[in-house]
């Protein structure tokens, strides 16, 4: 990714009880981490992002969500945004001139470090280190694909970074965009309340998270491990580390091999 890190959206979205108000323009918040989304389906936002802790943080102004309706940049009377693939093939491809115009609009009032990302199954896998990097940015602009994808020329011209949610194909990038935003927003100071709450999560130290338990102390004949009820914090920490190592080795040998976890 190059230094392109600028974005500006048509509309700011805030959490609200009324679905009809979701796309009502609101004042831009200065120096607030912002997610700007280029999409053919702007009404799908904020979606789940408008609920729970992310929704409360959105309402409280800890972060901001803007949408750019790709259809507004469509060509001709019918606002066409796609065409058939060059060289033949099934499906449709989002046009470079349409996507390019939307991106150019998104670059107008950028500030600081502002990554430009296309949600794509061929992109770099979405990982916790990447999410931490995005949380340290001033904001992000996300391009949600549809149909067979986006004309490569638009991606090349703006040096768009491609990121994948996983090794599968979806009907569009909106769900992936919401997943990325959710994972990033929760790392913004003040969103979770307790800054230490992310310290022992999966991937925070190169390992999957240890098993979690809560009361009742016994359920269906299954008891909480004695060590967790012992009050001995050193032994509890040791148990959790061992459990994390075992779970990682068993379920994600690739993750185990990629880190130097054996040295801990």
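^ structure tokens above, recovered residues below v
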């Amino acid at each position: 990714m190059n230094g392109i890190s600028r974005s500006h959206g048509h509309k700011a979205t805030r959490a609200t009880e009324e679905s009809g108000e979701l796309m009502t323009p609101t004042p831009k918040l200065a120096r607030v981490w912002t997610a700007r989304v280029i999409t053919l389906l702007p009404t799908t936002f904020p979606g789940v992002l408008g609920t729970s802790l992310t929704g409360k943080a959105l309402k409280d102004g800890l972060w901001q969500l803007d949408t750019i309706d790709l259809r507004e940049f469509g060509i001709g009377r019918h606002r066409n945004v796609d065409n058939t693939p060059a060289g033949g093939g099934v499906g449709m491809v989002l046009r470079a001139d349409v996507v390019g115009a939307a991106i150019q609009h998104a670059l107008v009032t950028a500030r600081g470090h502002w990554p430009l990302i296309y949600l794509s199954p061929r992109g770099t896998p979405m990982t916790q280190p990447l999410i931490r990097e995005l949380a340290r940015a001033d904001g992000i602009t996300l391009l949600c694909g549809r149909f067979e994808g986006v004309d490569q020329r638009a991606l090349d011209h703006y040096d768009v970074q491609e990121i994948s949610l996983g090794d599968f194909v979806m009907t569009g990038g909106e769900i992936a965009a919401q997943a990325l935003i959710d994972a990033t927003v929760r790392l913004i100071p003040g969103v979770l309340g307790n800054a230490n709450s992310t310290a022992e999560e999966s991937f925070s130290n190169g390992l999957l998270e240890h098993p979690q338990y809560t009361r009742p102390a016994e359920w269906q004949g299954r008891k909480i491990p004695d060590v967790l009820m012992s009050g001995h914090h050193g032994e509890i920490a040791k148990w959790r580390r061992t459990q994390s190592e075992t779970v990682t080795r068993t379920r994600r040998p690739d993750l185990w091999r990629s880190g130097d976890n054996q040295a801990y």
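Residues 1-11, 13-25 have pLDDT under 50 and may be disordered.
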